[in-house]
Structures are given as C-alpha cells and as structure tokens.
C-alpha cells in the first residue's frame, strides 16, 4: 500500500510562516533599494545645489499709455529681458511663462505668453515680448496718478513674469517649480501734447530683477 501524506495544521502553519517571511524579506529589499535611490538623488541635489536663474530688464518701450475714460486704460509696451543660468552643472527648462505690466499695483496689460525654452549650463537668452492692453478696467485714481507722474517727470512701471521651471541634471529632470520675476522700470516722462498723444517712451534699463522660486 502506498503511503498517504497527511499534513497536520501545524505543518500548514509552518508553510504560511515561510511565505510571510519571504514576502517581508522581499519588501525590505525593495524598500532599501528605493531609499538608496532617493538618498542618491538628494545627495546629488545638495552637492550641485542649483541657483535660481537671473533676469535683467534691458529695454522697455512704451508706445501707448493713456485713458479712454476715467477707468479704462489703453497700453502698448515692448520689453526685452535677458535670462541667465548661473549653474555650472544644471540646465533649466522654462515652462508656461507669462509676462504683464503693472502701474501702481494695477495690471495695465494682458498676460502675454513667452514660448517654452531650455537653457544650458551658464547660458543666457534674450526674451522679447509685446504687452498689450485695450480698454482694461482700472481704478479711477490711476489717471490722476499718471498726470502727477508726468508733472514730476518720472514714471515707474513693474514688469512681472510668472511661470514654472524644471531643473535638469544629466538625464534626470525634476518636477515643476513655480517662478515669479519682478522687474522695476523707471522712465523719464514729460507732459502729453497734441503731437505726441500716446507719449511714446523708450528706455535702456539694465535693471536686475528679483526672482522667487
């Protein structure tokens, strides 16, 4: 007669214990590998320590800035900026950039999109944008402020750029980080007259902008 293999509950419990042990061991191996990869990425990140990009406002041209009524403004402004990557080992992707101009903390142009681009290590690029505003609603006091600035001969505008950036180290690319750039433009301005109703202004700036990430 053949021998019948009968396993007791004790044997089954022992078998289950072995399977659980193997699962736990595999989990520990995977966890250790994952933590090692994350630690390596963080170590490279802290060693490289990427610096935020730099922006310089080189030129601003105001072709139009006037009020069609007490609370509507029309504007046409052209800007030229330089973007610099100060990092020696880190490249930068610029995504979803938008530029606008503000006066007395009020937006006087619509958001203008700046095309996506990549900037290599220690590279620099010139960015140009035309900022337009047609009958944008503003506070009624803005017309008075503009007249007062004309009387003093100085006009202060703010150029703002918002968007996202990604860091690139070798083949690794980080997630997106929001970036905010603020550039102050100071221009000499005279009184409006019939020969120059839009009060066209052009100014070479070379102003360092503030950048926050």
- What's the main sheet like? 8 strands, antiparallel
Topology, number of strands? 12
Shape annotation? elongated
Q: Please trace the helix and strand order, writing H or E for each element.
A: HEEEEEEEHEEEEE
Proportion of beta-strand residues: over 45%
Radius of gyration: 30 Å
Distance separating the two termini: 81 Å
Low-confidence regions: 193-198
* Class computed from helices, strands and strand pairing: alpha+beta
Helical stretch tally: 2
Oligomer: single chain
Mean pLDDT across residues:
83
Helix share, percent: 10-25%
Overview of this protein structure:
Helix content is 24%, strand content 48%. It is of the alpha+beta class and 213 residues long. The chain has 2 helices and 12 strands; from the N terminus they run αβββββββαβββββ. The strands form 2 sheets. Strands 3, 4, 5, 6, 8, 9, 10 and 12 form an 8-stranded antiparallel β-sheet that branches. A 4-stranded antiparallel β-sheet has the order 7-2-1-11, with no helix packed on it. A hairpin with a 2-residue loop joins strand 8 and strand 9.
